[in-house]
Recover the amino acids of this structure.
């Protein structure tokens, strides 16, 4: 009887594993930010271009793959701040944040 109980416990727990950001087909902005804060890409922290809206900060773009991700983000945000891009005409304050 003990062996049967042990087998049931082992089989039941076999499917139990850590839930990660890669499980499922959708993640939240908080999970995305947590992932990039926890992981460097080629030794560099990612940067997030965010827009301040009535619901708080909203991700627009995550920048990674450059040795200077924050500087790249700032150069992308500059035209948005001045309204020089068509899709930046949506009101909001754009800012960059290093995800470390």
């Amino acid at each position: 009887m003990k062996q049967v109980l042990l087998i049931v416990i082992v089989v039941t727990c076999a499917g139990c594993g850590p839930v990660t950001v890669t499980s499922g087909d959708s993640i939240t902005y908080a999970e995305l930010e947590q992932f990039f804060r926890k992981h460097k890409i080629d030794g560099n922290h990612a940067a997030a271009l965010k827009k301040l809206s009535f619901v708080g900060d909203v991700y627009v773009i995550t920048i990674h793959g450059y040795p200077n991700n924050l500087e790249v983000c700032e150069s992308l945000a500059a035209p948005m701040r001045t309204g020089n891009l068509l899709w930046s005409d949506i009101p909001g304050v754009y800012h960059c944040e290093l995800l470390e």
